[in-house]
Amino acid sequence: MKKLWNAIANGFLEIRYHVMRSILSVVGIILGVMNLTAMFSIVKGTEVANRTFIESLGAQDMVQVSVDWHKVHDLGASAMKQYRLTLNDMNNIKKYASTVKSVGVEVNLRETLQYKDKNKEYRVLGVSPSTFPMNKYIVVNGRPINEYDMQNAARVCVLGSTVAKELFGDVDPIGKVIKVRNDYFQVIGVLTEYGATLAKGPGSSPKKSGSSGKNNNPLEWKNVRILIPVTTALDRFIGQDTSQNWLSIFVQSISVEMVPSTMDEVMNIMLKTHNDQDIYTVGSVQEWMSNMEEFTGIWNIVLGVVAGISLMVGGIGIMNVMLASFRERMREIGIRKAIGASNVDIFLLFIVETIVICIIGGFIGLGFGYVVSMTALTVMLQGSFGAKPEFSFDAGVVAMAFSMFVGMLSGLYPAIKAAKLPPVEALRYE
Amino acid sequence: MESIRVYNLNKTYGQNDEKIKVQALKSITLTLETNKIYAIMGHSGSGKSTLMHILGLLDRPSSGQYFLNNRDVSKLSDRQQAHIRNREIGFVFQAYNLLPRYSVYKNVEMPMTYSTVSGSDRKIRINRLLEQVGLGHRIHHKPNELSGGERQRVAIARALVMNPTVILADEPTGNLDTKTEKEIMALLTELKDDSRTIVLVTHEVEIAEYADAIIKIRDGEVIE
Predict the structure, then answer these.
(1) How far apart are CA B199 and CA B80, in angstroms?
(2) How far apart are CA B46 and CA A332, in angstroms?
(3) Over the range B192-221, which residues count as b (16 or more CB within 10 Å of their CB) and which as e?
(4) Strands (DSSP E) found in A68-182
(5) Quick one: DSSP state of residue A342?
(6) What percent of chain A has pLDDT above 90?
(7) How far is residue A367 from each of residues A134, A363, A392, measured CA to CA in Å?
(8) B45-83: pLDDT as tens digits
């Protein structure tokens, strides 16, 4: 124990005596640890950003029903029409499922909107009233689409905030009539401005709130769509046209925990109501999230390997420096051996110095890694639903342990060489 | 009292190749006693340094036996030999061989750091020794701030700090002027006592005059 303490003290003395050499030797370790911590933190931050994005869709308890078009394609052209999802499917799920809170539909179109002399193409969604709470479409002006609109295939619409701004400017759009393809629709509501709090938040500089600020808003897509009753969309724009994108049905489970049972139940209902034709797939946001986690895991491995390689290179750098130090200090080794240092003492002298250098380098790297990852994450997460940049301390610990390991490994060869040096040879060295 | 006995000691370099084989020491048999100063004399290349290295356990003989204080030490492990160098042998080199980055005090303390001597004992002993060699006022200086004679005094203090039974001095005054040489030799001569053997390695007759016995070596053999 005393010997070890002695060796550590000597190590520090050596490092202080060769400040520049020690700094140069640990540059590799500093960069490696910085890489490792920064990369892990950034990957983790991205994951957090993605998760908050998905959570912002209110989608944790969501299950989506869709048609497996590859299977349908194999059955021939007529099957396309036969197996597309219909409002009946939505009603069946509503009727038979016990773990379902609500069922919504969406059908996706692109149409040209016209008001007075302005016209522009927008994404038009046919939706059911239940879609509003499920997909967090919040109406701040007017009212959402209701059951009455749905049953009567009413020609009414709810505008996204950007659509309302672009078509109407400062005029209140409620009650106005716009032209969609060849039909006239009355505006009954306007959606809230998604991401507005973030775009105007204190975190963003005035420079960024310009044209690029719009692109930075990850929720802008919700502002540039218009919503009409799904029945109206089917009657007016889709009809019997089988080439069009068809309905998608999403189901909200009664709880996040029940999502797997809801998926089974919905799948069973789909099979029962379609002559046991295995043509539908049921997916959940939870599944996507676990896929994403898997993806994150892969990234962690890839980046870990990259950072590991840079640490190894750093280790080789240290080994070189320690070998040079060994040659420079051969006489010292001889003197120490002459006055009674054993091979173990000399080994400790060298290995401890290497490890001390590596630990110091590791801490410096950790500091740099912290700065780099916090900077990168702050930029990345700007406007991402208030997600806070999070430093991965696990990665810091792993990186430190790894840099110590590399230090030990790279110090091993010079230390063994020094320990085994016969005292006469060491003393003879000038 | 007998302290060192070597019997039929041989040292051969390049044993595996007949062409470069050099026999540095040939059948050396010696007995050295305590309370005496010995001078090993010979020209360079005579084998006197090799003999000193073997006596100091810095090198191993090719064959033969070496008893230090009645213990056969030639076959001990590296670790055991390091232990004996630490406890029983003190070296004084021509080139002083102090560690340049450490103070006088630290240099003298160095052998103790490879032993179990406790901190308070160390301090007393180091200070007393530095007083003894006349360097009480230089404790915190670095070796490069000292003169050659002063450096050699530090080396002598270091050699004595573990109270060894054998002092091996290899050309201890080789780098010093005549006046300093006399001072250092006086200091070394003082160290002679009942439990200690002092061995000087030199090629200078003036130095050998301080010795009680002279061992002359030529071509690896003791001739006198």
Answers:
(1) 22
(2) 27
(3) beeebbbbbbbbeeebbebbeebbebeebe
(4) 100-115, 118-127, 139-142, 156-159, 177-180
(5) -
(6) 13
(7) 44, 6, 12
(8) 888 888 999 999 999 999 999 999 999 998 899 999 999
For residue range A188-223, list pLDDT tens digits in order.
999 988 876 554 444 433 433 333 444 456 677 788
Least confident of A30-34, A422-426, B195-199, B220-224: B220-224
pLDDT (average), residues B201-207? 88
- Residue of B89, B66, B30 lying closest to B214 (CA atoms): B30
State the virtual CA torsion across A39, A45, A49, A51 in degrees, nearest 10: 100
pLDDT for B140 beyond 60: yes
The rounded distance, in Å, linking the Cα atoms of B152 and B167 is 14
The reply to whether A4 touches chain B by the CB within 8 Å rule is no
Write out chain B residues lying below 8 Å of A423, CB-based.
58-59
Test the B interface: residue of A330, A339, A353 with most B CBs within 10 Å: A339
| Angle, CA of A396, A397 and A403, to the nearest 5° | 90
Structure tokens at B72: 């056969």
Tokens of A257: 């925990």
Beta-strand pair A156-159/A183-191 = parallel
Q: How far apart are CA A311 and CA A31, in angstroms?
A: 8
Residues of B in contact with A427 (CB under 8 A): 58, 93, 97
- Token representation of residue A143: 């009212």
DSSP code, position A222: G
CB A93 within 8 A of CB A100: yes
Tell me how far apart the alpha carbons of residues A66 and A279 are, in angstroms, rounded to a whole number. Answer: 9
